[in-house]
Design brief:
Elements (H helix, E strand, L loop, with lengths): L9 H22 L7 E4 L21 H16 L5 H12 L6 E4 L1 H12 L2 H11 L3
Parallel strand pairs: 1-2
Amino acid sequence: MGLVPIPFGGFYSASKFALEAYTEVLRHEVKSLGVRVSLVEPGFIKTRLGENTQEPAGRITAYDPWRKRAFEARRRYAGAAPEPTVVAECILRIVESPRPRLRYPIGKEATRGARLRRVLPEALFERGMRRYFRL
């Protein structure tokens, strides 16, 4: 969600965007010390994140139809997502790598979303996101 934020996940996405920037900066700062920094970017993974999502205190009811569709799409994609072990296996590969890359997208959504964001015109990418989350 740091490269491709999802609807109704604004604060979570913002924190991931911040990690993207911090990781890139940190990688530059510590490289001369022999420290290598990488970023693990999982897409949908079977976790309890969806179950632990809280409704906003001052929910704007005008958003309800779109929020409901977006959350249903998130649950559907998370239900078909890989197990968290794929993330652990990726981290192990990074630790064992002599020259780890900066980014490691995990899962088809993370890989496809980042690639599409780079190559598609902005309007087309946005249309695809709206369709993906049924907005």
